[in-house]
Amino acid sequence: MATPQFSSALSAPAVPAAYPMAKPGYGKRSAPDQQPRTRDDFALLPTRERYVAGFVDHLPDGAAMTIKQLAKQLPLYGQQAISTALNALSVAGHLRRVRCAVGAGDETRWVFRTFWSRTARDNEWWNTYLATETASRSAGSTSSAPAPVAVPRQRITPEAPGATPAPAPAPETPAPATTPAARTAPPTAPSPAYLALAELGRRDIRLALSADDCTALEKQAAEWLARGVSTDYLIAALTAGLPAQVDCPPRFVGRRLTDKIPPQLPDGPASPSTPAPRLLMECTDCGRPGQPEALPDGLCRPCRAAHSAGGRPSPDPTEIAAVKAHMANLRTLLKEP
After folding, report:
1. Which of 276, 337, 327 is nearest to 134 (CA)?
2. How far apart are CA 106 and CA 263, in angstroms?
3. 3-class DSSP state for residue 95?
4. Residue-wise pLDDT tens for the chain (337 aa)?
5. If DSSP codes are grouped into helix, strand and coil, which group holds residue 293?
6. By the 8 A CB rule, do 252 and 272 touch?
7. Of 41, 170, 200, 248, whose CB count within 10 A is highest?
């Protein structure tokens, strides 16, 4: 028996397995606390908007959300129609486009994301959620990962044959420092300077360093970090402008650590801290950035007015009459000898 159709809207096509993903940090982001997916989702939307919404809802997080890419996957509509549909979905409360600054100092860049919610949300909910997302990112940028806890050496190791037993054996007596168990105990976490040196070989094979090389150069690299530079800056300075061949990477890196060390800043008032990264919402239609309160329904004031008027304001009858009169006058002048 055929399954009855409850809506005349087109069913969204299945997401292809080869759908392109956006660069890390970009693309689709699903909002929390959404209702379970049902066949009646987006039932109140027009046919085109429901078609686009059904497809976007099935995209994985991190999928590309550009209008051009969506138009490639949805052949029934062109880029202009997809753009208009996304504007309508923004007004309906299903999506918001945001941009966020990541990085620090000269390496700050903007990433663009599209937050999606299958459940329609009002402006108050979106404003609260984006503010909470900003606060969580700020907390994440200032808090550092907990340092790994060293494992205490309290396990009993078997004594060597012929060894003199301890006068007062205890089940949790720590093993001597010279036992094999002590030598195989987990080492302490490597320093940021050591990790930066170890990363050089991954950035460029010409600067591959061994573990002993990293240990020998660790003190010099730590002096760079003590002068306020980041590990990314240190790696970029050591890998920039490499010759075609590096015969001795440890000596080459050591020379650069000495010659290119940044200046020591004098003691003075602390430099202003880098502002915590925050989310900045942008207009779904034109991309104009602004605070969530200034972009109700995800649209700026001009785009919101155009959307309320049906996409394009109706022409004034007086202007139409004036244009017709002008064209008639031009035709009359062309007929005259």
Report:
1. 276
2. 17
3. strand
4. 444 444 445 666 677 777 888 888 788 999 888 888 888 888 889 999 999 999 999 999 889 888 999 998 888 889 999 999 999 999 999 999 888 877 665 666 778 889 999 999 998 888 888 887 766 655 555 444 444 434 344 443 444 444 445 555 555 555 555 555 455 555 678 888 999 999 998 888 889 899 999 999 999 999 988 888 888 888 888 988 788 888 999 999 999 999 888 887 765 554 445 454 567 888 888 888 877 778 888 888 888 888 776 655 455 677 777 878 888 887 788 777 6
5. helix
6. no
7. 200
Domain that holds residue 210: 191-259
pTM over 0.70: no
Please name the helix (run of DSSP H) or strand (run of DSSP E) that holds residue 45, with its range, or none: none
3-state DSSP assignment of residue 112:
strand
> Rounded to the nearest 5 degrees, what angle is found at the Cα of 148, between the Cα atoms of 190 and 159?
90
Q: Which residues contact 215 (CB under 8 A, 6 or more apart)?
A: 194
Both tokens of 198, joined, read: 């170890």
- CA 272, CA 242: separation in Å to the nearest integer? 34
In a domain, 221, yes or no: yes
CA-CA distance, 80 to 48, in Å (whole number)? 12
What DSSP line would sit under 164-225, residue for residue?
PPPSS--TTPPPPTTSHHHHTSPPPPPPHHHHHHHHHHHH-GGG---HHHHHHHHHHHHHHH
Q: What are phi and psi of 290, to 5 degrees?
A: 180, 175
If asked whether residues 252 and 282 sit together in one domain, one would say no
Q: How many domains does the chain have?
A: 2
- Return the residue matching tokens 């020591």: 264
Same domain, residue pair 131 and 233: no
Q: Which of 97, 126, 101 is nearest to 299 (CA)?
A: 97
Closest alpha carbon to 49 in 101, 21, 100, 90: 90
CA–CA distances in Å: residue 299 to residues 132, 255, 311, 319, 329: 21, 55, 13, 29, 42
Looking at the chain, list the stretches that DSSP marks H as alpha helix, in order from N- to C-terminal side.
Answer: 47-57, 67-73, 79-91, 123-142, 180-183, 192-203, 211-226, 231-239, 249-259, 301-308, 317-335
